[in-house]
Amino acid sequence: MDTLFTVPVWDDLEIKQIIFSVLWALPRPSTEHLLFLHGWSTGLEKLLLAFCYSPRGNKESCNAKEGSPFGPFWNRFTVDFTGSEFYGPFHYDVYNTDIASQWKRKYPPTSWPVLAFTGAPASFPVQLENKYLQKCVIWSDEMQRKARKFIKDNLPKGAFIGIHLRNGIDWVRACEFISTTPNLFAAPQCLGYRNERGKATQGMCLPSLDIILKHIKRVIRNGKKYKINLRCIRQ
């Protein structure tokens, strides 16, 4: 979730877990539930503002619910934004401590209990100097338990190859920019931040069926039998 809670109590992990447990247990959790849980009696007009760096589209708006998964995500919580807040030229940089102070001065928690971002304020792809932080990400015991349960309940016994194939229309459109944006998405992870190991191509971003089958065959050519678990947006 890209929504950032600025209230001090949000630093309490146990409180966060309780709130999200309640939210996901509800049939259709909503903005009103958040207000109730935090005891907020005012600030609804600011709570329902969508945050983005600059206007998106032709209107002076963040268009926070335009497209998928944005629209379905906010609809899941029955959130309808009443307006937009443009936070540019602010950005996020962990090496610039003054940036955090600027955010707090402009958006104090007492007046802005929730900052509902349309996307993460950090740079994407991840900055080179922040790349090492990824090794600190550890799946929680609960997530690992769910993963093992899914494998046990849904996949045949034995070794398997899991394929997450991004081929929805949003991905197709994004890949159109690969020729002019060589560092698109996670390309630097494979090719380097200065493209020292080559440039990303359309075939890498949106591989054809032949390329997909070629790489699958390369994995299974050792003769071992594998089950293939494929997840994709469209056929």
UniProtKB/TrEMBL annotation:
One of its GO terms (cellular component) is endoplasmic reticulum. It holds the Pfam family O-FucT. One of its GO terms (biological process) is Notch signaling pathway. The keyword Thylakoid does not apply. GO terms for molecular function: peptide-O-fucosyltransferase activity. It is found in: Endoplasmic reticulum. The lineage of its organism: Eukaryota, Metazoa, Ecdysozoa, Arthropoda, Hexapoda. This is GDP-fucose protein O-fucosyltransferase 1. InterPro entries: GDP-Fuc_O-FucTrfase (IPR019378), POFUT1 (IPR039922). Belongs to the glycosyltransferase 65 family.
